[in-house]
TrEMBL record, chain A:
Pfam families: Acyl-CoA_dh_1. The lineage of its organism: Bacteria, Bacillati, Actinomycetota, Actinomycetes, Kitasatosporales. Residues 176-277 form the Acyl-CoA dehydrogenase/oxidase C-terminal domain. This is Acyl-CoA dehydrogenase family protein. InterPro entries: AcylCo_DH-like_C, AcylCo_DH/oxidase_C. It comes from the Bacteria. The keyword Flavoprotein applies.
TrEMBL record, chain B:
PANTHER family: ACYL-COA DEHYDROGENASE, ACYL-COA DEHYDROGENASE FADE29. Signal peptide: none annotated. Its cofactor is FAD. Belongs to the acyl-CoA dehydrogenase family. Pfam families: Acyl-CoA_dh_1, Acyl-CoA_dh_M, Acyl-CoA_dh_N. Gene3D superfamilies: Acyl-CoA dehydrogenase/oxidase, N-terminal domain, Butyryl-CoA Dehydrogenase, subunit A, domain 2, Butyryl-CoA Dehydrogenase, subunit A, domain 3. This is Acyl-CoA dehydrogenase family protein. Residues 2-110 form the Acyl-CoA dehydrogenase/oxidase N-terminal domain. InterPro entries: Acyl-CoA_Oxase/DH_mid-dom, Acyl-CoA_Oxase/DH_mid-dom_sf, AcylCo_DH-like_C, AcylCo_DH/oxidase_C, AcylCoA_DH/ox_N, AcylCoA_DH/ox_N_sf, AcylCoA_DH/oxidase_NM_dom_sf, Mycobact_Acyl-CoA_DH. The keyword Flavoprotein applies.
Amino acid sequence: MRREWPKSARAYAETVSDVLGSLGGVEAARRAEVEPTHRAETVRPRLDAIGALALDPWGDEEESAAAALAVREAGRVVLPWPLVHVLAVPPSARADCGGVHLVLGECTALDHADVLPDAIAVDLRDQRVFSVTVERRRQAPLDPFGCEVRLVDTGLGPPVTDASAMHLLLDAFWVGGALAGAADLALRHARERRQFGVPIGRFGEIRWRIADLVLARDSLDELARYTWWLLRVGRAGPADLLALRLQMLESARTVLANAHQILGAMGLCEEHDLAVIDRHLQPTLRRPVGRLGTTTLLADRIRRDGFDALFPVPPSPIRPGC
Amino acid sequence: MLRIRLRALLAEELPPDWVAPFSLAPDVRAVVARVCRRLADEGLLTLSWPVEYGGGGADLWQQTVLREEMWAHFEPRGPQYMGLNWVGPVLMEVGTAEQRARHLPGISSGTAVWCQGFSEPEAGTDLGSLKLAARRDGEAWVLDGQKIWTSYAGLAQWCFLAARTSRTENKHDGITIFLVPMDSPGITVVPIDSMMGEQHLNEVFFDSVRVGDEAVLGEVGRGWDVMGLVLKHERIGIPRYARDDRVLCELAGHEGLDEPAAAAEYVRALVHTRVARLLSYRAVALSEAGRLTQQVASLARLASIQLDQEVAELAADVCGAEGLAPDPGRGLLGHVEDVLRYSRSATIASGTIEVQRLVVARAALEGADRAS
């Protein structure tokens, strides 16, 4: 595995970052929450203008990396557009399908469903495909772009083969970006905020939190990069992608908890970006399933497929029925 | 492929339930000697050494595979890993021609045992505070003081000793490294009975021990720089994840995993093991590119040492009370109690977890934490 991202992909990520900066960064998420049309009227055209919505994450190495890094930049500002849902649709199916949602069993609400035409939902457990009909928007602090939906089973099969794998992979890049943003906010605060006459970053307890936060952030980054490579070389099985999701959820929990603790009451205020990042990240962390459910899914999958390692775990390591 | 070759070799040479290299027991020492001899015969003992010193000239990735396989199989080189991993390489960098000629053959043949004399009762993590004194007396140096936590001191023929030759305002100045024969008059080794097992921890007392100038490694008073070289060779740390990986593989199918809570912890540990390996590989890759930072190395260590304790606790829980005593007939799972005892030292040995966290936090606060 080559660790360096292609130069062209890194350059493209910078372009994406500049464009998102021109939208106000996290401010775009705040504005879209108050003014939902901001998403389709302003955010989407800007992404379209730089070709972000046409990227093929299954494409050649440079394009695939560009897609992953673009998603990461979007996640960094919790961009109010479902970029992952769009890019997880294989390009050949995009004319007929505007986006793909991941679900697990019964589902009554999905985020951004109101801006994705002809979207479908794929069940993570059995890959069943559903059409999505939006009933109405259902805005909530932790589900700012949630919509009540009705799903209708359309059966198995194309045109979205591999969509759920790509969705799981890109979700990790999205969350990785958001956590990097949250970590930067916490670090800046630890450097600048003074208590008892010194920056709070001088205190051992704060440093301890910073170390745990950085480790959690980097753990996700490394596993996401590795899983991206596994997928590219055709070696990423469902267990690998669920392992990535599990790490994503654990990293998010650690980074957000420590960032909040370092920022104190300031980080709870809506005017602070951390509060917005935290709230807007929650739908990705809970849909289609949170940490406990993901752990169960992963255990099921490892039972069936085993798990690759220096000493590979054979199938059925956990006996049936438990 | 190196990994397959090493596993085949170890399968031939190691007893099925090999777990304990820290021992004076004749059968354990015989296994270590046999494995070292076989590795030496096949050019694998000094695989990581430069070709000009009779080594294999292996790249960092081959060295990583070697370290992983050795650690996963309970370091069957026993005390030799110290000489091979850093005493030899440091001698190559700063030793005199005479010192290299005297010491390297013993290390490369797996016959010389070294111990590291750094820690003292009042200088653990704060190594710069070490006090063991070396004073000039005519043509000789006279060593007086105490070292502690010294692994293999009872087996070692040589000690890589840090001593204070002068006192200056900067406590890192005035330290000198000595290569001291452990059979020198005045050296007393006192084993410390510990939950880690015999030979793991010792006290070493130096009472007017006389050595000549030929024992001085590097410049007098510049020992801190030499210690920095030691740390450079040990920076990424032990690949603990490799043994944890093996433990998890051995646990597969154990009835203790029937509990949903245990199964959940098991799959989490598998993910954490993969992540610890990747963080370590990041450090190796950056080291290869000459861009390894202390923070990246410490992050790899942080993941690995915490994983070690997580997996040991899980294995002990899964095996239950039956695992409290060794059961030689059950392979690795018959020695879960050893895994648990040893894991207690993971966050203490070779730089405590607190120091690793401080290194990471300091770099992050200085804005230098995205070196990768």
